Amino acid sequence: MGSAETQGALWGAAARDWAELAEPVQTPFFTAALDALGIAEGTRLLDAGCGSGLALTLAAERGAVVTGLDASAGLLAIARERLPEADLREGDLEQLPFADASFDAVTAFNSVQYASDPTAALSEIKRVAVPGAPVAVTTWGAPAQCEMRAVLGAIGALLPPPPPGAGGPFALAAPGALEQLVASAGLVAERAIEVSTPYVHADIDTAIRSHLSSGPARRAIEVAGLGATREAIAQACEAARRDDGSVNFDNVFKVVVARA
How far is CA 57 from CA 17, 51, 93, 218, 254, in A? Predict the structure, then answer.
């Protein structure tokens, strides 16, 4: 993803916090994508950018034969704890280490945008999928529908300006953008699903730990230091704190369902 070495180090820096605090709040769009693809007993599923394996665990519970690839050795170590029998490999989305037509379905949850060449990553997904197999690609919805833009903006303010043409976390949220990217790799987009996915944590300290575990946050820590990054995230979380002390950011994610 992107540079697999760079992204792997960032996303693995706080792997346990990601697995236990950040990944679980993404369950709604994991479930929606698995439903849309018809994942069932015997489905050979690849999750491209599988993180610590929660989506694959949900698929395995449906009887799927699961395979995962991720850039982060730290996240994969947790995925292997969860799925000791699964084929889980470290690698780059742009060079998938699988034979042509190996999978009945493929998912890519918030991973393609981290590839240095997203079209190449999607072309690889198409290559390893059985012709006509369903593919689900997920990314953030429109900024106005994603209260996490406050956290992402706080992190982004600590980072150097992006390269010209880089679109940031919501680059694929514009109408038709994700569908156009999918089509550029020869996949045929069939429909788009919007999935309500609130990021809820029991208290502000848990929310801060969760959001500090993301790759962009770890990059901000490298640039601005842990103290500044933690404070920026804390301010965003404080604004989202409820009366009971929990922290909630309502979001919508977009799942594009396509055919290989």
Answer: 18, 11, 20, 26, 21
pLDDT for position 165: 57
**Residue of 116, 59, 113 whose CA lies nearest to 88:** 59
3-state class (DSSP) for residue 168: coil
Residue 175, helix vs strand vs coil: coil
**Structure confidence by residue, pLDDT tens digits, 212-228:** 999 999 999 999 999 99
State the average pLDDT for the chain: 95
Q: Where are the beta strands (DSSP E) in 93-187?
A: 105-109, 134-140
CB 96 within 8 A of CB 34: no
Run of H or E residues at 87: strand 87-90
Tell me which H or E stretch contains 44.
strand 44-48
Supply 37's token pair.
């693809």
